[in-house]
UniProtKB/TrEMBL annotation:
This is Cellulose synthase-like protein E6. Gene3D superfamilies: Spore Coat Polysaccharide Biosynthesis Protein SpsA, Chain A. Mn(2+) binds at residues 283, 307. UDP-alpha-D-glucose binds at residues 111, 140. It comes from the Eukaryota. Coiled coil: none annotated. It is found in: Golgi apparatus membrane. Belongs to the glycosyltransferase 2 family. Plant cellulose synthase-like E subfamily. Thought to be a Golgi-localized beta-glycan synthase that polymerize the backbones of noncellulosic polysaccharides (hemicelluloses) of plant cell wall. Signal peptide: none annotated. The keyword Cell inner membrane does not apply. It is a multi-pass membrane protein. The chain crosses the membrane at residues 21-41, 53-76, 518-538, 558-588, 650-673, 685-705. It comes from Vitis rotundifolia.
Length: 734
């Protein structure tokens, strides 16, 4: 029972099956120790071939072991949360806080305006008093087409919101709703009628927006609809323009009503000022401008942040989040409630391992029990003051009960638009703490993780919540290259944090629990993982070619710890993957993607970070495309791996694939020619490892040699990789 004898607004349950996990962890640990002993006592003598290969392998294994300890720490005691929304309504229905929702977009071509406004409409339609909701769209693309789409959405919302509320529809993202729900049956003629008419209206709107997109500009006729279009007369370049701020729906205005006479949420379009001279700090800069502008317009106590593709799939999420933030016992110390990042375009076997299932189902739940999840940039409800830099202290507890929603601004919308513009100007942040101690932090491609860490270091707690009905659904990358590039950005940011003064072990020392410091490293140390993996996929195979054995003989007892650690790790990860809703083939794809990501994204990300530390390279943010053309979608649906581009990442992948193919053939030949049991005995494990890598790389061979379509491996990559692989093999042989 909570404070004052009230029942709590949420409860926490520990994951089951921890004994089994403990058994796995302890027995694997024993195996690991034995492997280390073996490596030490069998170290080839000085001068003998293979000594350095052996030492390198041992170092790689030590790297893996270190990382394995981190993964175990995260998995010790995952917890899951459950909310009681009825209790929240009973106690607080009349005093619910204001919620400001920030949607960020940056590029109208790869983030189409129809998708953006679908997200906007889905969050406008939350099951929450509309007068307490304000939705802000930040458009870093500075596009009048996005503005036009939002204008259309503001009008469509007058019909869409009452429809959603009347029939309690889910999801409240129109596109997702109409594609996922079959036409209602005739036993509910009222709904059937409204359904078809609103569907038609939605499609008309979508067509209008899409035809404007095709033309690439706004017609005179549309321009007349709103004064806001006039702003674009002054815009010549999306990277060089004044602040554009338009309040499309002013929730304070009594006339802002839907067709049923109910109030509408406030809706604001913001494209912050951009000038070539000023760094705009990507999404973090956009978020900070939104924080300031919204503080003048609606000043909601809670801020929800979503990426433009992450529509709300569950109209109750706001209430779910408030169950944590308003809980009488612990609510006052919680800075943010993070929901998982889920996707609506994952195929059955998830070829590019984009679902992040294990991260969202297991690892973040583990973070939660170790001190609170990190902030992952989207689907996160923040307490405004915590995001703005406030330290947690005992006052926060007292304030919890005395806070009320006052300080309403009385200015008219157009006056507000003018007075707020300066808050989104380039120079506003000069000589302020914005981007440092206030708002989202600058200078890191994963601003989210860094910001979350610093909030936790200021004494706040955070909560991870996975509701049964998914809260948000977004678009995962649909090509191999997009996936690898996205991960490269993450790695750069994560590893940069580790090397910076924000390293959890120093910055977090005495501020957050040790187990949380370690947990952070599961992401922050993704990058350096590239070295052991690059070594492991190349060196044992090259040694196989030369006939140097790096593993125990099959006939020796030392094979047992190797066999055990390999099989227990595989079995555990497979079990976990299936438990998280994956398939067997999905697991295999996931394993492949780990190898691919580690040898390319992680490698490039790490190198880039080091170059940046040395001052040779600058921060960037490659926005992930959220659209695919028809052909691309078809291949994605059929789970055919997409190459096509002449990227250095592909050269590495193809080189390693070919290298393993050559060495595998070479190794087998050696065994057959020698025909001595001896050779097989001492090389079998290497042949196996090499064989698994060959199997894993089947799609690469397919792309190199057997495909004719446009997305086969480009010829330049093919030739380069053949040359590199042959070179490596001949170097190994001579
Ligand atoms: O200059 C920019 C660049 C990006 N964005 C927005 O940031 C969001 C995330 O970009 P996306 O390309 O989709 O990156 P993802 O890798 O999918 O994003 C994940 O990783 C990012 C950090 O790398 C976080 O910011 C995101 O919230 C998180 O979802 C999108 O809505 C963009 O429109 C901006 O507003 N301004
Ligand atoms: Mn994204």
């Amino acid at each position: 029972m909570g404070r004052d004898g009230q029942l709590p607004l949420f409860e926490t349950k520990a994951a089951k099956g921890r004994i089994l996990f403990g058994l796995y962890a302890v027995s694997t640990f024993v195996g690991i120790c034995l492997i280390c002993v073996y490596r030490l006592i069998h170290l080839p003598e000085e001068g003998k071939v293979g000594r350095w290969a052996w030492i390198g392998l041992f170092l790689s294994e030590l790297g893996y072991i270190l990382y394995w300890f981190i993964t175990v720490t995260v998995r010790l005691k995952p917890i899951y949360r459950y909310t009681f929304k009825d209790r929240l309504s009973q106690r607080y229905e009349k005093v619910l806080p204001g919620i400001d929702i920030f949607v960020c977009t940056a590029n109208p071509i790869i983030e189409p305006p129809t998708m953006v406004i679908n997200t906007v409409l889905s969050v406008m339609a939350y099951d929450y008093p509309p007068e307490k909701l304000s939705v802000y769209l930040s458009d870093d693309g500075g596009s009048c087409l996005t503005f036009y789409a939002l204008l259309e959405a503001s009008q469509f919302s007058k019909l869409w919101l009452p429809f959603c509320k009347k029939f309690k529809v889910e999801p409240r993202c129109p596109e997702a709703y109409f594609t996922s729900t079959p036409e209602p049956h005739h036993d509910d003629p009222l709904m059937a009628e409204e359904w078809s008419s609103i569907k038609k209206l939605y499609e008309d709107m979508r067509n209008r927006i899409e035809s404007a997109m095709k033309v690439g500009q706004i017609s005179e006729e549309i321009r007349k609809q709103h004064k806001g279009f006039g702003e674009w007369d002054l815009v010549s370049d999306p990277r060089n323009h004044q602040t554009i701020l338009q309040i499309l729906i002013d929730g304070r205005d009594g006339k802002a009503m839907d067709v049923e006479g109910q109030p509408l949420p406030t809706l604001v379009y913001l494209s912050r000022e951009k000038r070539p001279k000023y760094a705009h700090n990507f999404k973090a800069g956009a978020m900070n401008a939104l924080i300031r502008v919204s503080s003048r317009i609606s000043n909601g106590e809670i801020i929800l942040n979503v990426d433009c593709d992450m529509y709300s799939n569950n109209s109750e999420s706001v209430k779910d989040a408030l169950c944590f933030l308003m809980d009488e016992e612990t609510g006052h110390e919680i800075a943010y409630v993070q929901f998982p990042q889920c996707f609506n375009n994952i195929t059955k076997n998830d070829l590019y391992a984009c679902s992040l299932n294990v991260i969202t189902e297991v690892e973040l739940a583990g973070f939660d029990s170790n001190g609170g999840p990190c902030y992952i940039g989207t689907g996160c409800f923040h307490r405004r003051e915590a995001l703005c830099g406030k330290k947690y202290d005992m006052d926060c507890e007292r304030e919890q009960t005395t806070r009320n929603n006052d300080g309403k601004i009385e200015e008219s919308a157009s006056v507000l638009e003018e007075t707020c513009k300066v808050l989104a100007s380039c120079s506003y942040e000069d000589n302020t703490q914005w981007g440092k101690e206030m708002g989202l932090k600058y200078g890191c491609p994963v601003e989210d993780v860094l910001t979350g860490l610093s909030i936790q270091c200021r004494g706040w707690k955070s909560i991870y919540f996975t509701p049964e009905r998914k809260a948000f659904l977004g678009v995962a990358p649909t090509t191999l290259l997009q996936t690898l590039i996205q991960h490269k950005r993450w790695i750069e940011g994560d590893f940069q944090i580790f090397l910076s003064r924000y390293c959890p072990f120093t910055y977090g020392h005495k501020r957050i629990p040790l187990k949380l410091q370690i947990s952070y490293c599961i992401f922050l140390l993704w990058g350096p993982n590239c070295l052991p993996t690059l070594y492991y996929v190349a060196m044992p195979s090259l040694c196989l070619l030369k006939g140097i054995s790096l593993f125990p003989k099959i006939s020796s007892l030392w094979i047992l710890p190797f066999a055990y650690v390999m099989s227990s790790s595989c079995a555990y990860s497979l079990g976990e993957f299936i438990w998280c809703g994956g398939t067997l083939l999905g697991w295999w794809n996931d394993q492949r993607m780990w190898v691919f990501k580690r040898t390319t994204s992680f490698f490039f990300g790490c190198s880039e970070t080091i170059l940046k530390q040395l001052g040779f390279s600058r921060s960037s943010f490659a926005v992930t495309s959220k659209v695919a053309d028809e052909e691309e979608s078809k291949r994605f649906e059929q789970e055919v791996m997409e190459f096509g581009a002449a990227s250095p990442m592909f050269t590495i992948l193809a080189t390693l694939a070919l290298l393993n193919l050559f060495t595998f053939v070479g190794g087998i030949t050696r065994v057959i020619i020698d025909m001595q049991a001896q050779v097989l005995d001492s090389l079998l494990l290497q042949i196996l490892l090499c064989g698994v890598l060959v199997l894993m790389n089947l799609p690469v061979y397919h792309g190199l040699f057997f495909r004719k379509d446009a997305t086969r491996m480009p010829c330049s990559v093919t030739y380069q990789s053949i040359a590199f692989a042959l070179l490596a093999c001949s170097l190994a042989l001579y």
